[in-house]
Design goal:
With about 150 residues, the protein is α+β, with helices and mostly antiparallel strands. It folds into 2 domains: about 50 residues, no CATH class; about 90 residues, no CATH class. The protein is about 40% helix and about 25% strand. The strands form 2 sheets. Strands 1-2-3-4 form a 4-stranded antiparallel beta sheet, with helices on one face. It has a 4-stranded mixed beta sheet with strand order 5-7-8-6. The chain is elongated, with a radius of gyration of 20 Å. The two termini are about 15 Å apart. The relative contact order is 0.18.
């Protein structure tokens, strides 16, 4: 939660995604170390590890609820367009993005970060997307922040 009653979440990858990404860096560093010596191997490990961590952080979507609306990594949905919002558990998320999914949904899914999410139904006939579906570690907090912000 933010101080103004809104909400902000950076959806960083889960621990296992970091482990997988850094394992690739470690394999590359070992290969360079074996071929070129310890110095290049350590340099690849340090630089590659730092770049990997930076890229994982940089590409993690940011979800914000504020008086401006719902924002997900640059996409903004004005609060006036929100008809309803609901928390969605992992089973319902699989259903919403599975074979019978509505292809018109705006989706921001990061299954390596969270399995639950939020479904925001729109009330805007001009919008080509009937709803937004996105993953979150705290979908209940987002729904509560949207409800509170819309009532002000």
């Amino acid at each position: 939660m933010t101080e103004s009653g809104g909400y902000r979440e950076r959806l960083l990858p889960s621990w296992w995604a970091w482990l997988v990404a850094l394992s690739f860096v470690a394999m590359l560093a070992i290969a360079y170390g074996a071929a070129l010596g310890t110095g290049p191997g350590v340099a690849v490990a340090v630089i590659g590890g730092a770049l990997t961590c930076w890229l994982l952080w940089l590409t993690a979507p940011v979800i914000r609820v504020s008086s401006r609306g719902l924002e997900i990594s640059g996409a903004t949905l004005p609060l006036a367009c929100v008809a309803s919002a609901e928390s969605v558990d992992a089973a319902r998320m699989r259903e919403l993005r599975g074979p019978g999914a509505d292809a018109r949904l705006f989706v921001a899914l990061r299954p390596w970060s969270a399995s639950d999410g939020v479904l925001v139904v729109l009330d805007d006939p001009e919008d080509p997307h009937p709803a937004w579906l996105f993953t979150s570690r705290h979908p209940g907090r987002i729904v509560a922040a949207l409800t509170a912000t819309m009532s002000h």
